[in-house]
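ok posting inputs for the S-adenosyl-L-homocysteine job
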Amino acid sequence: MAKLHVITYGCQMNEYDSERVAGLLREHRYELTDSEADADLILVNTCAIREKAEEKVFSKLGELRALKARKPELVLGVMGCMAQLQQTTVQKRAPYVDLVFGSAAVSRVAELVDRARTERRHVLDTGEAPLVKITARPPSADRVRAYVTVMEGCEKHCTFCVVPRTRGRERSHPPEAIVAEVRGLVAEGCREVTLLGQTVNAYGRDLTPPTDLPELLERVNDVEGLARIRFTTSNPYNLTPRMIAAMRDVPKVCEWFHLPLQSGSDRVLERMNRGYTRARYLELITALREAVPDIALSTDLIVGFAGETEADFEATLEMVEHVAYDNVFAFRYSRRPGTPAADMTDQIPEAIKADRNRRLLEVVHRVTAARAARLAGQVVEVLVDGVSRRNAGELSGRTRCNRVVNFDGLGRVRVGDVVHARVTEVLPHSLRAALQSTPEEAVCSSR
Ligand code: SAH
Ligand code: F3S
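and the output
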């Protein structure tokens, strides 16, 4: 068999696509290798969301160029969002790349690789194509937890965001195909799925007959053997009361919700074209906490968006305190080609962005540490997913609220089990816990 090495940058959807590609190529006699030097084919799955993500890819491609110089038969491919957005720049800055293809071409990867290998000339495929559900996975994929893409693309027009350009129109996969994929995963030992979409709570409105995420969650919940469901990313604009009720009522849906805020200032939210105000966002948080009191909330925030004043920024800090998030992803605003915000004239200097980012992270660390501290002494439900990274004598898993837990349970508990454990120590990025129940005793609980 020939050897394939895949390098993945960016979001969970890219991780999912990388798995599909490895699965598809396996059917064409490519097996995965961890070693770049051993590979006959290297695919770099790229992200274009911020300039920094793109620079990382170019510097990686620079490294791979040296490898290719030593091994001319190596086929080098670039896939994903940068392939879509920056195809000419990739060809100009990295002319040694053999193959460039966008997400719509993933299902044809074997054919594209074959062409690049045999024709020995550049192959480019960044056109549109019908939506195809690919379920192939390599044997090395995580057994216990899996991503499942339920929709592609995004039709929101957030003024900072390049995703609608890189991933195209909003298209949902039919519920039957999704349920079948989940069933297949469970048959291979999977216990937790994360349903993926750029605006996942807009799922299904483009299908005939139309459906929605709450209905899909019900259907996935019925898959026997599956223990947990998560979904990401939700947009506040599309967050309906039905969805909030589903969070409360669908048993396997975890008490965890990622709801990007982006900014705490109404003025900035409007310039970002987000479609909600700070007050509306807070109403949604109140409704979520009323429905699911223990819910863990996380968010994305952008600092230094064009025109952001000190007062706007302070409004964001205030929201972090007020909402009391469990987790926050903070980004410095990055001008993306072709987006409306890139042309706004009141751009913020990088030094101010860096300073605001630092100040935001200080508040975030304090707030999220206080949220984590609440878990000390509590009994949490843990889905066991492997041995601990730091200590091979310990097992590791995640709570329903998505925190990493390490505990001593070797010999008594297996990977894929759902157990209960009491939190003995809260560390900055994980919890330590003592096993309370073996899998047979464990019943579903909400934490
Ligand atoms: N619908 C997806 C969006 C993916 S982008 C989601 O909500 O996850 C993920 C995050 O990247 C966004 O929420 C935003 O906070 C950040 N982001 C997007 N474009 C950006 C830009 N131009 N500069 C900085 N951060 C950006
Ligand atoms: Fe981007 Fe806004 Fe869609 S952040 S992915 S345009 S919801």
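notes: The domain at 145-373 is CATH 3.80.30.20 (pyruvate-formate lyase- activating enzyme). Confidence is low (pLDDT under 50) at residues 443-447.
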